[in-house]
Amino acid sequence: MAMHLIIDGYNLIRQSPDLLAQEHQGLHLGREALLDKLTAYRRLKKHAITVVFDGWEAGDSMANRDHFQGILVIFSRRGEKADEVIKRLADQEQHRALVVSSDREIMDYVEHRGATAMSAEEFNFRLELAVSGGDATEFEEDRPVRSTRKKGPAHRASKKNRRWRQRAKKI
């Protein structure tokens, strides 16, 4: 099954020191640097990628969609936050979606809808590794597992956690 990455653009920019430095020079420079990095990542991993940016304060009255080297870029319309667009996309994609955002509300929402959520900080780490030629699977054991103690001989991770690990290996 193909995976569709849905990324909260400004959230990811603000989790990366490199991208944040670009954004301080100009908002458009931060966006361009993120898209350049994601383009390099897309060449390696071949996942469908959608990046959503907020346009709710100064955006157009209609949502603005554009393609940048195979990446779908969406600016939310004026009066609508990127969070709402991300939720709508996650509802459409359901199990195919991996949503990248550090916003706890979005993460909880998409996980309840059957999609997988990953923090922007963790995705940025994996993005940097992939673009630089590293491999994130060697760090997979270091990830803290949120689970309750289970009774009986089968100490198996929760279904949600197993699905997360399976998708994270593909990133």
TrEMBL record:
Q: Which InterPro entries match?
A: YacP-like
Ranges for region Disordered: 135-171
Show the Pfam families listed in the entry.
NYN_YacP
Q: What highest taxon heads this organism's lineage?
A: Bacteria
Q: Where is the composition biased (Basic residues)?
A: 146-171
Q: What is this protein called?
A: NYN domain-containing protein
User: Which PANTHER family does the protein's record reference?
Assistant: YACP-LIKE NYN DOMAIN PROTEIN
